[in-house]
Amino acid sequence: EKEKTLAMIKPDGIAGNYTDIIKKTILDSGFSITQEMLFELNEETVRSFYAEHATKSFFPDLVQYMSSGPVLIMVLEKVNAIADWRALIGPTDANNAKITQPNSIRAMCGLDLQRNCVHGSDSPQSADREIMFFFNKASSGFVSRND
Ligand code: CMP
What we know:
GO terms for molecular function: ATP binding; metal ion binding; nucleoside diphosphate kinase activity. ATP binds at residues 10, 58, 86, 92, 106, 116. Keywords: ATP-binding, Cytoplasm, Kinase, Magnesium, Metal-binding, Nucleotide metabolism, Nucleotide-binding, Signal, Transferase. This is Nucleoside diphosphate kinase. The chain is an alpha+beta fold. The protein has a single domain (2-145), classed as Alpha-Beta Plaits. Helix content is 43%, strand content 22%. The protein is built from 8 helices and 5 strands. The longest helix has 12 residues, at 124-135. It is globular and about 35 Å long. Adenosine-3',5'-cyclic-monophosphate (CMP) binds at residues 53, 58, 62, 92, 113-114, 116, 119.
């Protein structure tokens, strides 16, 4: 059964010019990109997207980082898309990814635990919520649409 997940190239991935290689990796891995949008997230939008992390000590830094530059948001589709995209991006900490999963996307382009270049929904519930968050409602973080 086909499934959708939300993928994001974070500010460090865009700034590091990794967009094309990441998109090629996505397509070579059998996903289709069904929607795509470039956003510049403001702090309020980041706080809302990452609401589950609001009480964490790293939250203020996360909000600043995620609003520091444009992000590319994509909806990916294939059989088992949610788990397969998480596997392809590798562990959260890019330093750890370089050791344990050197062919993962985070090993290739991530910098550290925070600046890990990509995001992926972690469950079907998260995927639904995150796709809805960016594509089924107007957002104050909206910049432009490329699909
Ligand atoms: P992601 O899993 O996409 O969503 C939550 C983000 O918070 C995570 O990627 C990292 O960018 C960041 N993050 C998670 N844990 C930490 C941490 N312990 N310290 C700093 N940043 C973190």
